Each structure stands twice: as structure tokens, then as C-alpha cells.
Amino acid sequence: MIAQATLQSRTDDHLRPFDVRRDLLQLAELIELAFQEELDQTGNSIAREMRELAQSGPPLWLFAANPRLAMQMSGYVWVSDGRIVGNVSLGLESEQRRLWTISNVAVHPGFRAHGIAQRLMQAAVEELRSRGAHCIVLEVRSDNAPAQSLYRALGFELYDNVEELRLPVHAWPDNVHPPAFPLRQRRPNDWQGLYGLCKAAVPARVQEVRPLLPYHFQVSLERRLQAWLERAVAGRGGADLVLEDGGQIVAWLQATGRVTAGSYRLDVTVHPRRRGTIEPELVTAGLQQLSHRTPRSVASTISTSHPEALQAWHAAGFYTVRKLDQMALYLHREGWPAS
To answer: Which of 86, 110, 133 is at the close of a domain?
Structure first.
């Protein structure tokens, strides 16, 4: 009741656009306050990275002066008594498809249940509508009933459910044996096979929102140079492996280790006709690729449409950190998806 009375008595409560140069530090503090438990569970360092950028001086001004970079950190804030108590962030995911992402929908605990999130979301949707967005996507915890209700009231539709999993350092298996079948390193000319694999494996609703295009799988010279720089500068390494069956790629395993990140990543795609037969060997192969690096936790994100992978990852010691609903709002269905 105190928070409600305080909110109603403010004369300077207002909504305004996010200003990266003056708001970033307060936004980092708000995100830590609103999502501390989730940040700890997932090892997400977004608040720390925001704080470092906010205190960086000239790099922040260069960031803000670059229209393309600034577009990735736009949005709205709710201000009360000069302090940011609510936020919604906007990011352009694909200019060609006019696909935008909404994230960091946060409200200070003392100001919740007063319609601030609704006002922020309404402003965000109208902003993106005015920018000509075709589709807006977001993620929300499956057990967050208030947020689920708000997003559905605004017209968002469910298109996938995923589980974020983590293998703690202390839960790594003592002996990681090689897989029983031959995996090989991905080659540049594998792009057609990987494209076909993902077209068969990724749920149709997901492909409707995020269409799979051939160039996503082509390894250009620019991408190879970028990968080399990441290995040399950021310490990123690991393995990019495929499994063939009768000349067709039926599984894709990516084990990624990054020196500067809080955890390693393990991602998998399996053709529907091979599901239920190879997942335990794939998770073992992924852990083997990472076992020679500095011991760290390992993170994975797996769609619930692939229960065989979830079962294999759990059997290997991974636990579910959180379950997320992925939702989309179509502002212009005609002509979507754009190629």
C-alpha cells in the first residue's frame, strides 16, 4: 500500500524514450534488482556489461553516436521521482524481414501491479508499428502468469517452448568417452546439408517467425575471418561437428568455449528420423570436445519439441534452469515472412 500511495502521489511519473548515455547505469541497476535470481541461475552477465559500458566514457559516446548500434539499445523507461523504475528494450533482429525483439521488460518490485509494464509495452508496440515492423518477438518465463496475460492481451502468440539447461562444473562426468559413431568437422560445402537438416528439424511455427534461409548456413570468407579473430582475441573455440548417414547430414553439434563468457555452450540439431537413437552419444561427444578446456559450467537451450534431447541432457547431469515461452506479434501478416 505504501508503494501504491507513493506512486499515485508522484507528479513527475512519466514515460520517455531510453537514452543510452544517461540511463544505462540506472538500467543495469534495475535489471539486477528485477532479475537477480535469473541472472545468477543462467550466468547472464548483461547487467555487468551494461555497467562497464556506462562507465567507459568515450566508448559509450561512440556507441550512442552510431545509429545502427544505438538501434540495438533503444526502448522506453518509466521514471518516478527522477529514478528509472521501469524499462522495455527494443532491438532490430533482421532489417530485411523487419523483425524486432522486445527484451528487459522490468519494473522495480516496489512499483509493480500499477500498470507500468502495460504502458511500457504499449509504447514499445506502437513505436515498432510506426517503424514499419512486420513482427515482434519476445521470451517470457512459462510460470510468469502476469506477464503471460499482458502479452496475450496485446496480441502475442506462442510459437515455441524452450528449456534453458545448465551442467554445473561439479556435475561433469568423470569419464567422457568418445561417441560410438564417427562425427566429423563441419566443412564449408556442408551448407546445403545443414540447411536441409534444419528445415526438417526446426518446428514449422519457429520457421514461420524466423525463416531459414540458405545464406544462414553458408560460410563466407568474412565469416571465416570473424571466427579466426574470435579464436585469437576472445579465446573462442570448441567444435562444429556433423553426423552423416547415407550421405545425408542427420545431426549437427556445436560445442563452444569462450574465455570471456561465464559458461560454455552446447547446441544440437537432430533429424526427426534419427531422434531417440543418437542424443546420448551427441551430448557425450559435446562434453568431450569441451573437457580439455578450463572447467566451467555448460549451457544449452533445447526446444520442448525435441524431448529426446532433453532426456539425454538431463541424464548427462544437466538441470533445467528455466522454461521459456517464445511469443510473436504480427503487425503485418501480409507478405510475411519476407525472404
So the answer is: 133
Assess whether pLDDT exceeds 80 at residue 152: yes
Set of cell numbers at residue 52:
562497464
Q: Are 72 and 91 in contact (CB under 8 A)?
A: yes
Q: Identity (one letter) of the amino acid at 35?
A: F
Q: Are residues 264 and 315 in the same domain?
A: yes
Contacting residues for 90 by C-beta, under 8 A, at least 6 apart: 74, 75, 100, 101, 102, 124, 127, 128
Q: How confident is the model at residue 285 (pLDDT cuts 50, 70, 90)?
A: very high
Yes or no: say if 131 and 102 are a contact pair by the CB < 8 Å rule.
no
pLDDT-derived band at 2 (thresholds 50, 70, 90) equals very low
Q: What does DSSP say about strands 135-141 and 99-107: parallel, antiparallel, or unpaired?
A: parallel
Q: What is the largest CA-CA distance in the chain?
A: 71
Q: Is residue 9 part of a domain?
A: yes
Residues 176 and 34 in one domain: no
Q: Are 177 and 145 in contact (CB under 8 A)?
A: no
Residue 124 and residue 183 in one domain: no
Structural domain total, the chain: 2
* pLDDT for the residue 35: 84
Q: Which three three-digit cell numbers place residue 248?
A: 545425408
Q: Give the other-Cβ count within 10 Å of 95's Cβ.
A: 10
How far apart are the C-alpha atoms of 302 and 101, rounded to whole Å?
20
Q: At residue 98, what is the residue type? A: R
Domain that holds residue 105: 2-133
- What does the pLDDT read at residue 153? 97
Measure the CA–CA gap between 34 and 21, rounded to whole angstroms.
21
